[in-house]
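FAQ: What does the model actually see?

It sees only this:
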Amino acid sequence: MNIDDDLEKLLNNLPFFIYQHLSSHSNKEKLIEIVLDLGRRPEARFTTGPEYLSQKIISWQDIDYITKRISKFSGENRAGIERTLHRISCIRNRQFLINGLTCRIGRAIFGTISIIRDLLESGKSILILGKPGVGKTTIIREIARVLSDEMEKRVIIIDTSNEIAGDSDVPHSGIGRARRMQVVKTELQHQMMLEAVENHMPQVIIIDEIGTELEALAARTIAEKGVQLVGTTHGNCLENLIKNPALSDLIGGIQYVTISDEEAKRRGTQKSILERKSYPAFQLAIEVNQLYSWTIHENIENSVDLILRGNFYVSQTRNLKENEKIIIQYKKLQKKFLLKNPQLLHKERVPLHDNWSLVSETSTVGPLKLKNTNLIIYPYSLSKNLIREILTKFGDKIILTTQIKQANLIIGLKKHLRQNFRLKKLANRQNIPIYTINQRSIYQVMRLLQFFIS
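And it is asked to produce this:
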């Protein structure tokens, strides 16, 4: 595992008494950040713990010396050093003068994502969770290099604070052949995400620190366009996202629903329960517990559903040892209610797809039987243009009908079908399954039809 940290370039911009101490420090490869506060002794924070660097206290002159040798601070009070990955953040007083600096060490660690190499090759969108300072940015930097150099994919990085590719117009070599789009203001990150898709035809988009509702919505839009996403957000685990209203859309969104007495009795729950609202923007989630100890959720949909039912523990953990040996451990899911009622295990309803769901309760007709017959579809509340495009794409493989009795499948818009009890009653009598889509999208309809005819 190779490490490129350009530490000397950062130390050269510090006052001599700090440079002298750190340049000869025996533990400098484990340095995380240097903290310089006015009127206090300079402090270095290592992975092993903090340490004072000098008896001398920091003065205005020391802070001024550093700020004049680095780039200008942005609106987020962050600056950098040309062609490096280091980040310098400032603290200001009420007169807007800088009275504190945090110098964060940026490193490109080659080989750090060998622990999840198989997940990258799957082509699924990956969400990385972890508390600040655990190494999320280092991980996605290496992911960008592997995807662009080794897998030869078109990768675009949305670099809001220049942390991923460095503080320069020329990106750091740590991202490989990946391209970098800089963001002028943090609040414009969601616009840059969409612009990247529309203008530069990426196969993969990488985003660091998704933190607002607009950014979560942009991530969902990108996922619907068929682009692979790799993103990070703050949080120790999936439960943190479920409790965060602004970011819950990343994992499908959460809503309260009221179920019938019979269903509540079957599930062993109250009538008002929490359920996932729709499909997640990401398929995989990685919880970075420590630098080389990660928890993997191979299917976010199932993980979130189980968490909401109150019976989910840990699915998979991966650890990278010093000899670069990867240890993968599986822990059994403990389904408290279902283990007490084993006869219900086969009755648990699982979403068929993230874009559409089965509405009717028919049991004799299902996806497996439909695959072996001609598809005769009754479209409900779908526009003529959408129907015309469906016929163009599938040709003779499907037949559209205006007679419900002739159909063996009904497809319609969810919000319209929800109100039509007469149609649902007729379909139930004729044993015709009804599938709903969330919006009038040719992509959603095509994915549904491919499920039956492939």
